[in-house]
Amino acid sequence: MFEYLLAAPADPILGLADLYNKDERTNKINLSVGVYKDETTKTPILESVKKAEHLLLDDETTKSYLPIDGVNSFNIATQVLLFGSENQRARTAQAPGGTGALRIMADFLSRRTKIKRVWISNPSWPNHRSVFQTAGLEVREYRYYDAQTRSLDFDGLMSDLNQVIAGEAVLFHGCCHNPTGIDPTPEQWQTISELALKNGWLPLFDLAYQGFGQGIEEDVYGLRLFANNQPELLIASSYSKNFGLYNERVGAFTLIAADSEIADRAFSQVKTIIRANYSNPPAHGAKIVSYILNNAELKEEWIDELTGMRQRIHRMRQLFVKTLQDKGANQDFSFIAKQNGMFSFSGLTEEQVLKLRNDYSIYIVNSGRINVAGMTIDNMSRLCESIVEVL
Ligand code: PLP
């Protein structure tokens, strides 16, 4: 049965990580994969996480199954982080990472509602299209990025979203849009929310970088506006980046319905989706998050560590812009200092990206997306000299 199968193309981002690992040149720089790196280019385990793990190992008395929707204290803490307090119209299920939460969202829409079409931004994280299509939904794109002005194409976005009809869904990045690093302003979120209400389509949020933009509260401005204004909303949130728990696979799926009774009924359907997929989630990562968010001292330490990660990225953005200028770049890169989160659309062409990879051992995704967290004070000079040479 299998000899007919053709080899699948390598994942555009993870495939690049393989190439980077095989590259034997000593001065290589990796700005491709989407993980945080510290000043020594390591992806650290947070101190707050280590402390929570010690407590957890001491306290743990059983490895018995979790409920289908996971650790209850984790789900409540997730709502507090998302909305500022528990939300009576919301129900949350712990999920295996943000991707697992997106897949629950996609399966729920495809198999339990009448929705057939989901709109995603152009560009977006490539897995958005894969997850929704694999669940059987049609994916359409709305305009998002204006390459000329290197900013949000808000007119294009509004004109495309004006075509969305009731019974369709639209996915937004809660903050730190991947790959552009450009988010709507509070006024723009308001305008989009009014359009959703007027035309009756369902908003979806993917929140993978809470705390990496301006701060944990600031980064959910748009999400909270929608949670207050819209009768229905679905959210996939991830703890991979903001707790550095990438390989523990910790995320959450949250459903908001018009009232508490409808939320209960809809959520019972969500649980049937989970049961038929992975039955119930793994415990360790979610318990770490729950220990931290439910302990005032650990929570404060985590917020400090998250602030440290955010500020380091911000410093690298500024240093990158300045160093490019100092090295004589013939283009203005100041837009990079204004973007949010780990990623920037650098504006480098595919040809320039390939030259950087082959001749300078600098790894950037073909689209020109750079992970600013891969930059350090040590590699900045060589990085910027190389970019100026290929410009
Ligand atoms: N959504 C976006 C926009 C992302 O960038 C990522 C990870 O890169 C995810 C979701 C998935 O996160 P997780 O690793 O928790 O599945």
Task: Describe the structure in brief.
The protein is α/β, with parallel strands linked by helices. It has helices spanning 14-22, 47-59, 72-83, 97-112, 126-134, 154-161, 186-199, 221-229, 260-275, 284-293, 296-326, 350-360, 377-390; strands at 29-30, 90-95, 117-122, 138-143, 145-146, 151-152, 169-173, 202-207, 233-238, 251-256, 343-345, 362-363, 369-371. The strands form four sheets. It has a seven-stranded mixed β-sheet, sandwiched between helices. Strands 1-12 form a two-stranded parallel ribbon. It has a two-stranded antiparallel ribbon with strand order 5-6.
Question: Could you explain the architecture of this structure?
Answer:
The protein has 2 domains: 14-46 and 298-390, Aspartate Aminotransferase, domain 1, CATH 3.90.1150; 65-294, 3-Layer(aba) Sandwich (Aspartate Aminotransferase, domain 2), CATH 3.40.640. Helix content is 44%, strand content 14%. The chain is built from 13 helices and 13 strands. It has helices spanning 14-22, 47-59, 72-83, 97-112, 126-134, 154-161, 186-199, 221-229, 260-275, 284-293, 296-326, 350-360, 377-390, and strands at residues 29-30, 90-95, 117-122, 138-143, 145-146, 151-152, 169-173, 202-207, 233-238, 251-256, 343-345, 362-363, 369-371. Strand 5 (145-146) and strand 6 form a beta hairpin. Helix 2 (47-59) packs antiparallel against helix 11 (296-326) and helix 4 crosses helix 9. The longest helix is centred in the last third of the chain and has 31 residues, at 296-326. The site of pyridoxal-5'-phosphate (PLP) has 12 residues, from helix 4.
